Each structure stands twice: as C-alpha cells, then as structure tokens.
Amino acid sequence: MIDMVVPELGEFSLILALCLSVLLAIVPLVGASRGNVLWMNFARPLSKGMFLFTLFSFICLSWSFLYNDFSVAYVASNSNSALPWYYRMSAVWGGHEGSLLLWALILAAWTLAVAVKSRNLPQDIISRVLAVMGWISVGFYLFILFTSSPFERHLPAFPQEGADLNPLLQDFGLIVHPPMLYMGYVGFAVSFAFAIAALLSGRLDAAWARWSRPWTSVAWAFLTLGIALGSWWAYYELGWGGWWFWDPVENASLMPWLVGTALIHSLAVTEKRGVFKSWTVLLAIFAFSLSLLGTFLVRSGVLTSVHAFASDPERGLFILVMLAIVIGGSLLLYALRAGQMRSESSFGLLSRESLLLVNNVLLVVSCAMVLLGTIYPLIVDALGMGKLSVGPPYFNALFVPLGAILVVFMGIGVISRWKQMQLSMLVQQLWLPGVVALVLGVGSTWLFAAELKPWVTLGLVLAWWVVLSGLRDLYNRLRHRREKLAGLLKQTRSYYGMVLAHLGVAVLVVGVALVSIYSEQRDLRMQPGDSISFRDYTFIYDGNRHVEGPNYTSDQGQIRVLLNGEPYTEMHPEKRLYTARGNVMTEAAIDPGFTRDLYVALGEPLENGAWAVRVQYKPYVRWLWLGGLLMTFGGLLAASDPRYRKRRAMAAA
Amino acid sequence: MTPKRKQRLLIVMFIVVGVSVAVGLTLFALNQNINLFYSPTQIAAGEAPQDTRIRAGGMVVDGSVKRDPDSLFVQFDITDYDKTVTVEYTGILPDLFREGQGIVAQGSINEKGVLNAVEVLAKHDENYMPPEVAEALAKAGKMPQPEGQEFNK
C-alpha cells in the first residue's frame, strides 16, 4: 500500500527539506553574528538533514519513473513503459520539473560536501558559508514547490501510457550531460557562499582564498566537463555535425565558465599575494549570478533555442526575482564592505599579478561580449523595436581575436614572476619558444594541408606557443636541480593541474582551428548504388534496411566506405520513428578517429527509393573534447593538492 | 592640478576612450550580424529589405512542399494565415519539418519576393512554437488553439 503514496512522500520530503533550509539560512547566521557556538553548531546537522530529505525526494521521483506511475503528471509526459529502464532513470531529469529537482539535490550535495569536508575551518566562517547555501536552497525549494512540482498527480483519470521521453534525450549524452553541468553551475554557489561569508565576517585574507580555491576549481572542472559533454552530444545527436552553435543556452553555460576561469586565476593571486581581493569577490558573485541567469534563460523560454522548453512565464518571473535578489543583495553587501578590503602587497607593472589581471580583463570582456550578444535580442524585443537574432558571425568576429590574445598572454603569464620582473628577462626567456612556435606552427600547417590559411596557421602557432612556453617554464623549474626526475616528482599537483589545463587549451585550439576550416560536407541525393568520393574515402550507398528497436522503428542506411579503393568499414545511419510521440529522429553514423571523424546522416526519403544523405569529413574534431577533458582533469588535480588539506590541519593545530 | 592628479586624469581618460572604442566596435559588429524577424504579412507588404539576411517564420502550408526529383532543392510556402511567402531551399530539412508545422527560415528575399533560405529551423518539440512565429500568428489573429496535453497517442 505504501507504494501508492510514494509521490506524496517525495513532496512531503521536499517540504521538510525546505523547512530545514530555512532553519539553515537563519540559525547559524544569527549564531555567527552573536558568537553563539550552540547555534553555529546547527549548521552541519541541518545541512546533512537537508541533503537526506532532498535525496529521499529524488528517490521517490525515480521510483515513480522506474515503476511507470503515470498518475504522476511529470512521469506521464516524460516517460513510457516501452522505454528501457536506464532511460526511465535519466528521464527523471529529462524535463523542467525533474531537472530542477536534480539541481536542488546537487545543491544539497555540495552543501553536504562543504559541511563534511571543512572540519578545520573556523566555526563562524563555516556557519556563514552553510547559511548562504541555505538561502540559495530556500530559493530553489520554493521555486520547485510553488511553480514546478514534479509530484503533481493526474487524478482520477490518469493515462495508461506515458507520452515518452523526447527521443533526442534518449541517449547516453543526456544521462551524463545535465548532472555534470549542474555540478558546475551549482558549484559556483559554493564560491559565492565563501565570498558572501567573507564579506559578512569582514575577514577577506589569503586564508579565505585558500579555502575557496579547491571548491572553485572542482566546480570549474565540472562545468568544463558539462560543456564539453554538451558539445559532444550536440555533435552526434543533432545530426548535422556541429559542435558549437552560439545558441543562447550554450552561451548561458559559457558565460559562467569564462568568469569562473577568471575567478580561479584571480583566486590564485589573492591567495599568493593578498591583492585583487575585491575583484575576486566580485568575480565569485558574478560567476554564480551568471549561472542563475543561465537558468533563467533556459527555463523561462524567452529565447529561441534548441533547449527551449514549452514553459510558462510565472517560472521565468520567479527566477528573475530570485536573480534580482541575489545580484542586488550581494552587490549591496559588497558596496558596504568592499571599502574595508586592503591589499597586503603591491606589484610592478610587469609582473605575474598584472599579467593575470590582463587574463582576467580579457576573460571578463569576452563574457560581457557574449552576454551582450545573448540578451541584445531580449532588450530590443522588450523595447518593442522588433524581433531579431544575433548570428554566429558576431560571436566569431569578437571571440576569436580575444581568445587569440588571451592565449598569447597565457604563454607569457606562465613564465612570469610575482611582484616585479624585467622586460629583458622575459624576452630572454621567451624569444626561443616564440620563434620555435612560429616555425613549428607554420610547418605543421603546411604539413597538414600544403597551404597556409591565416586562421589555421594562427591556431597552430598559438598551440605550439602554449606548449613550448610551458616547457620553458618546466626547464626553469628543473634547471638548478641535479636530479631531474626527482625534480619532476617534486612539482606540486597544483602545478601539474595548471599544465594539464593549459595543455587542454592548446589541444582545443588545434581542434577548433582545423575542424572549423577543413571540415568538408556534401549534402546529396543518393539512390541505391550511388557513390561519392572525397578525401581518400568513397561512400557507397546500398539502400535501406528496416530495423525494430525497443520503442521505435528505424530505416537504417547501409553505407560501405572504401579507403583508397580498399574496403574500410560500413556505416549505418538511421532515421528513427519513435512511435509513442510519432517523432522522427536522425541517428548519425560516425566513424571516430584521433585525427578525423567520418560522419554520415540520413536526411529525408525522396522519390524512387532515394534518400537525402549528408556526408561529412571532420578533421581533428575529437581534439575539442580531448581539450575539455584535459582541462577537467587539470582542475580536479589542482583541487586535490594536499597543500589545501595540510595548511588547514596546521591552522587547526 | 597636481602632477599626481594629472596622471590620474590621464589614466581615467585612457580608460574612457578605450572602453568607448571597444563598445563602439562591438556594437558595430553586432549591427552587422543581427537578423531581423519578419512575418509573412510584413514580407508581403514589402517591409522586409531585399538581399539582406533576415529571419522569417510561419506555418508550412499543407500541400505546398514541392521537391525537385534530381536534387535536394525544395520549395514550400509559409503562412501566418493572412499572407503566405514562398521559401526556396537546397539541402536537408530538419527532422521536424512537415506540413502544418511552425518553422523559422533564415535567408534573403529576392526581387520576386521569394525567400532564398540558407537555414531552416524546426524545433525538437512538437508542442513548441518559435516565439516569433507565435507572436506573428497572434498578431494576425490566427493563433491555433492548443489541444491541451495529449496522452495515449
């Protein structure tokens, strides 16, 4: 009998989580301001309770999906009994309501992680951090319960069968992409909470930056992974082989990433040198605000995008109000407290500090530019000046040069010294990597295509520049050591994290340059027996075969591929009809490779058994995501540096 | 004015000039790359500029889709139930493209008033309608009533 009320249990559990979050938002904060240890001590148990109740609520919803309880409206519109069990599980976050519940769960999980992993932080700081997390949680629980509860029932006449999950989302990419992305988005809530706690307590010092750093790095790593996964998913699932569309929702995830990247660099300066404090706090506030703005853009349906949900304006209004409270409140607090911040040291015009400042300025400017392009249509529409959209050329025209300058400075920044350094020394160290990068860059471009296209050459030169200046830095570190190998092992995890992440940028740049310029695509009409050749490959179309899937039927194209005339492989692109919704879906066939992908997708059936077929050759496309993975590992490695734990242990002792 | 103040003023002026130049260039780039949306009624009334990249949207008229037997050329009409515009496109149409579906096309209007599309967008949600199309339909007073959520299809 108990299983009849599982959705209600889920809802009650969520209400209890809300109650706990309200307590968490108030009690420790009051305790911290009054110095009441008992009240402050409530922070950790309340965080744990909040997590447990949210988890239980999430399990209840998953249960309803697993056992096909179509009396729950959200389950009925996003699942189907013919759906395999793993897609029924991932369907939990396949729609608006459930993905918000996932968001709340991840927020609670981060809160729990902060509560458990920060044993050695001062009591008043940790209570304030957890209280701020509590405030954010209150906002999201209210949002879910009032505007988008996933537990609402269709009673008494509920459907016998569900409307099925959107076929685009029946895919491994959907299982992993949203949780990773949310881990990143929500992770910036932790950086935000640390910043607000520091402002509240007035203790903005190097210790604060050190506490905040590993959390920010982890959040950044997850966001990077989430974006990379999203790009990969779009590439193979949408059927046209694109990996970045400057779609508003992609921009919404890119903006916090850019500011977050600025933040992890700025935190490094604050920790090591005690400067940039107010700037760092501001970045932490903006990184989280942009995460919320991203949520608003996705959830309110104000923008045309592949992610647009059919949604109601009430939700958009709620998030807009929440956004106003978060930004307004935190900036007010900032304005009141920023005056008290003092730099602990100074730095010269040419120093690592000022180079990192350049990095920050470039990243923030890129973000502002993306923001402008993303919300410009909204502003124009709100002013009643017509409907418009901003095309990819705008973003490319501004983002590519800014990115190129950023990468140039990346090479210089790695070599530079803190506090003050001589230009002559910089030149003396960098001229060789610069010249070699130029030679190797031009050489590899020529080797690749026997021609020098400006953007490709620039991309490859920049990639070599990053690698070589990194090597020069490593050489500097090992020069005075007798045992080179031992010296290598002596370097910190933070250092190797940085190296990996920067290497990721170089790999990404190579991928972007080559796949943007040298991709080839043919859209053509193919009858059985037709073939097309390009590069070294010949694609022969042998007609279609009918295939039955668990919840779809499919026309599967049979395409033989020859490499230099020899049989190479067979590819089977599909056109699927998902019967529950009557949706047609393209399932591209991809032959992946380290240096190139072959990509075949079916268009639509034409007369006389012919099909529209899209054949693509994508050089180095995997390098895009490889770069993303390297950055992710870099971030995680840097965050795992034992230094963060050791110092804390010392502080406690 | 003390030399220190003078120096500060100079820095401030540099920043102001720098920011203005940056903003100016950005807005210029933005203006070069915006695509205005026009409804079929506006296009029929000649409001849309010729040979400029625009976006147009509406419902695909039933029975208007004509394909060339030898290539991927396709021609169809879109309507806001007041006026219709012919769209020509060569390439692969999106999965959800079908007659009666709301779509957005990007391209330019030629001298015959035909939209030469370079991109046709249909969204991957059958209940979803691009906001521009919905508004154009509402303006023409032809917004189809939603059927409500359907199950057991």
UniProtKB/TrEMBL annotation, chain A:
Per UniProt, residues of the Cytochrome c assembly protein domain are: 93-300
UniProt keyword annotations, A-Z: Cell inner membrane, Cell membrane, Cytochrome c-type biogenesis, Membrane, Transmembrane, Transmembrane helix
Gene Ontology molecular functions = heme binding; heme transmembrane transporter activity
InterPro entries for the chain: CcmF_C, Cyt_c_assembly, Cyt_c_biogenesis, Cyt_c_biogenesis_CcmF
The membrane topology of this protein is: Multi-pass membrane protein
Q: Which GO terms describe its cellular component?
A: plasma membrane
State the superkingdom.
Bacteria
**Positions of transmembrane segments:** 12-30, 51-76, 96-116, 128-146, 182-202, 214-234, 254-270, 279-297, 317-336, 357-379, 399-418, 430-449, 455-475, 495-518, 623-640
Q: Where is the Cytochrome c-type biogenesis protein CcmF C-terminal domain?
A: 320-641
Q: Where in the cell is it found?
A: Cell inner membrane
Per the record's keyword annotation, is Transmembrane included, yes or no? yes
Name one process (GO BP) from the record.
Answer: cytochrome complex assembly
Provide the primary localization: membrane
- Give the residue range of the signal peptide: none
Pfam families according to UniProt: CcmF_C (PF16327), Cytochrom_C_asm (PF01578)
Q: Which PANTHER family match?
A: CYTOCHROME C ASSEMBLY PROTEIN-RELATED, CYTOCHROME C-TYPE BIOGENESIS PROTEIN CCMF
Q: What's the family?
A: Belongs to the CcmF/CycK/Ccl1/NrfE/CcsA family.
**Annotated function:** Required for the biogenesis of c-type cytochromes. Possible subunit of a heme lyase.
**What's the protein called, per UniProt?**
Cytochrome c-type biogenesis protein CcmF
Q: Which organism is it from?
A: Marinobacterium stanieri
Automatic annotation (TrEMBL), chain B:
Q: Enumerate the Extracellular topological stretches.
A: 30-153
Entry similarity comment = Belongs to the CcmE/CycJ family.
Source domain of life: Bacteria
Compartmental location: Cell inner membrane; Cell membrane
| Cellular component terms per the entry's GO annotation | plasma membrane
Source organism (scientific name) = Marinobacterium stanieri
Amino acids binding heme: H124, Y128
NCBIfam families tied to this protein: PRK13165.1, PRK13254.1-1, PRK13254.1-3, PRK13254.1-5
Protein name from the UniProt record: Cytochrome c-type biogenesis protein CcmE
Q: SUPFAM superfamilies of this UniProt entry? A: Heme chaperone CcmE
